Amino acid sequence: MGSRWILSLRKRLTERSFNMHILFLCHYFPPEVNAPATRTYEHCRRWVAAGHRVTVITSAPNCPDGVVYEGYSNRWRSSEQVDGIRVIRVWTYVAPNKGFFGRICNYISYMLTATMAAVGTRDVEVVVATSPQFFCGWAGALSSWLLRRPFVLEIRDIWPESIVAVGAMKQSRIIRLLEWLERRLYRSAKQIVTVGEGYRGELQQRGVPAERITVVPNGVDLPQFSIHENRVELKSKWNSAGKFVCGYVGTVGMAHGLEVVLDAAEQLEKQLGADVVFWIVGDGADRERLEREAARRRLTSVRFTGRVAKSEIPTLLANCDACLVHLRGTDLFGTVIPSKIFEAMAMNVPIIIGVRGSACDIVLEAGAGVAMTPDDPKSLLRGIEAVRARREGFTGGRRYVEAHFNRDMLATEMLELIARFSLSGNGSAEARRVERLRSATDERGNTRKAA
Q1: How are beta strands 85-90 and 77-82 bridged, if at all?
Q2: C-alpha distance across the termini of the chain, in Å
Q3: Distance between CA 214 and CA 154 in Å, rounded?
Q4: How does pLDDT run across 26-35, given as a tens digit for each residue?
Q5: Strand pairing partners for 88?
Q6: 183 pLDDT more than 90
Q7: What DSSP state is assigned to residue 255?
């Protein structure tokens, strides 16, 4: 076959990819501010800008308190447009982000109502679903099966192993059932996208072939998190003027092990003239317990601010002298790359990284901060002193994320993957023909013998 005909087919492949209708299932979506909501929104709005149709099926915003946000209602179904994205919100059993029974009811109810909403969505070419929680993944698998469309699964958390790792549940028959469902879910996906190399190894240990795993890491919207001068209004508001601020910004959950902040603060307050304060910015299942414990210990150097809007986070980071990123020191969490590191790096705010594995490697390689031993308050205090000793020395973060973790680049990478599997999996003879041609053609447009 001639190369001209091959190039013509490639052009048709490209044109077809610019008319996809992507159905994306995500339990969380803005105005919620957690990592899954942010990643899904940032990717989807870029895909719409590239000419695609995107429908997101999510729940009424209520994370982490289990209280529906003002202006929204927990109805069976409602629809809105968000920056060109069609957002369908479905009813769920609303529960706070703590406690096992309520959360499971919340997850399962979303799986059922999201699947029903998906079946009623027309002209879908590919189904994408994201974790955490894998019942959202199962909603994607069921929707894919009912719609007869290819399924791409995004893995942001190894579940249910992560809930055992934080002590929320112990090994039991329920966990073994969930693990069986986990393996079945992986087999149902045409392709699995993970957010870090560590997850690739975990999935391969669970029997997922390497060729069915693609890594598309988290990143940052660079214009949103630009470098600007440190501002003082928040320091004054939170009684921190003239002090060194070590800020934790994100979900206050069991996995984050923020007891280490209280232990470090307690040790520091025993020293005369200590001028360090800790901000814990955000909300989650562990916040109330930590606040009670801080009050019991009579700690004066820890400020709990509660949840803040996503738009306020750049200003908040600009008020921090160091940004703490921490997870409990379990082996599983060594695979995690918290998305908050990219936001701090984009603003050249020094990071004290208390996460093992790739996350720590990224921060140190970029010259964006210092490492601490997870769960070790003395190591946290040493990290603070190291940042204070060379505050202006941590300026490599923004250059590094511009090169490697730019959200524009990563959204395009994932879009190309989705387009490829949309074409290969929609069941049409033309799509199968194009896919066979693509596999038998090199990048120069010359045919080669298929393997």
Answers
A1: antiparallel
A2: 17
A3: 9
A4: 999 999 988 8
A5: 57, 79
A6: no
A7: G
pLDDT 10s digits, 127-166: 999 987 789 999 999 999 999 999 999 988 766 555 545 5
Q: Are 4 and 10 in contact (CB under 8 A)?
A: no
What's the token pair of residue 415? Answer: 């879009």
Cα–chain-centroid distance for residue 204?
21
Residue 157 and residue 161: Cα distance in Å, rounded? 9
Q: What is the pTM of this model?
A: 0.80
The tally of CA atoms less than 13 A away on the side-chain side of residue 440 is 15
Q: 51: left (phi > 0), else alpha (psi -120 to 50), else beta?
A: left
What single string gives the DSSP state of each residue in 20-66? Answer: -EEEEE-S--TT--SHHHHHHHHHHHHHHHTT-EEEEEEE-S-TTTT
DSSP, collapsed to helix, strand or coil, labels residue 350 as coil
| Cross-strand pairs, 447 | 441
C-beta of residue 143 within 8 angstroms of C-beta of residue 119: yes
User: Which domains does the chain carry?
Assistant: 3-219+406-439 (3.40.50.2000), 233-403 (3.40.50.2000)
- Residue 415 phi/psi, 5° resolution? -60, -40
- State which H helix or E strand residue 116 sits in: helix 100-119
